[in-house]
Amino acid sequence: MGDDEVVVARQLAEVDALRRRVLNVVGHELRTPVTTLRGLAEAVPTAGEDELRDVIAPALVRSALRIERLVDDLLLASGITTVLPTGPAQSADVDAATRAAWAEVGDDGDVTVEVGGATAAVPGGDPTLVRILRPVLENAARYGVGAVVVRADGAAAEIAITVESGGDLVNEADLGLAFEPFYRGEAAVMTAPGLGVGLPIARSLTEQAGGRIEMTARSEGGVIVRLELPRP
Amino acid sequence: MSNGATEPIRVLIVDDEPDICLLLRIQLSAVPGLEVVGTAAEGAAALALCRDLKPDAVVMDLLMPGMNGFQAIVTMQADFPDIGIVAYTATAGEFVRNEMARLSVPLALKSGDVAPLAEQVRRVARGRGMQAQHDGS
To answer: Of chain A's two ends, which shows fewer C-beta atoms within 10 Å, N or C?
Structure first.
């Protein structure tokens, strides 16, 4: 086999491995909400009125929303941009978006939000900023230790939002790959489900808004994600 | 821990997905002969509940933050050998199947149909009960 053939064979093997990994994580991510949808729907006929209204119905809605978000994420990650927000940039309230994103993450841990009245300019406004911040906060909550700290500062033309979390010293290889679609770090694979598309989508939305996003390691352990966006 | 044949099998659910815990609490509580006695969101909390609640069987998710299911199963088998364990997972690739076979832990795939999981719970609870009788004889 010639050198070119070896290269092609290796590339095909990598594509095949990626295909299998993507199908596996999609199946994994779909199974939980589909399981709860079916199981809870089947429990409806025998449920009491209070349980149905207060417990089962909200859980059914949560599962449906999770599937909806998964489909949106897959379309974005696959490069089908029909679900990207369009139109001119709108002012987004950083404090409100951070708190909404944290609520979606649903973590019981501590978060400190010190962003004052900061605003950023992004197509789609608040919902887009929530979409950017959710995976950043989710990663901090899942893999960080201690409180997550969100701050805002920056020069006149741009707002810089930093999300800082403590933890172990971070594998540099993970940092470099964190924004690659369908990549999942060593800790992520063993401890939590996930597609590995949250941060790549955050980057796509940030860059669409004319901004930048990067992740750096803290010398004492943990990471800082720095998000720079235009001001309104 | 239940001893008599008529006492329900007491089940602890371990999963970081609150809606899965909710679902299994509803579904398994409706299965005759099973009683859900608690839920935990990760392995260390599950081990503490095993001490307090002394369940007959544990339904254990594998991928969880904190102590994951793989780690929890190893500790649980050492510290609570008379508790039956069923691994409950969304996908079971080669690594998961091999690990569970090595640990002699049966697998149940997450599904809206609770019957296969309930059967596995009965089986491990029965098996552990027989093991305890054997060890005590």
So the answer is: N
Residue A5 has pLDDT above 80, yes or no: no
Q: Is the pTM of this model over 0.90?
A: no
Distance between first and last Cα of chain B: 18
Q: Which residues of B94-103 are buried (b: 16+ CB within 10 A; e: fewer)?
A: eebeebbeee
The ipTM is 0.78
Q: Which residue of A has its CA nearest to B18?
A: A59
Chain B CB contacts of A190 below 8 Å: 63, 68, 70
A152, burial (CB in 10 Å: exposed 0-12, middle 13-18, buried 19+): buried
Q: Give the ranges where A78-148 is alpha helix by DSSP (H).
A: 94-105, 126-143
- Classify each residue of B56-77 as buried b or exposed e, where b means 16 or more C-beta atoms within 10 Å of its C-beta: bbbbbbbbbbbbbbbbbbeebe
How sure is the predictor about B137, in pLDDT bands with cuts at 50, 70 and 90?
Answer: very low
Judge whether residue B116 has pLDDT over 60.
Answer: yes
Whole-angstrom distance, CA of residue A157 vs CA of residue A154: 8
Cα→Cα distances B85→A38, A151, A155, B92, Å: 24, 44, 56, 16
Cα separation, A78 vs A204, whole angstroms: 12
What does the block give as tokens for B71? Answer: 């780690």
Cα distance between residue A109 and residue A114, in whole Å: 16
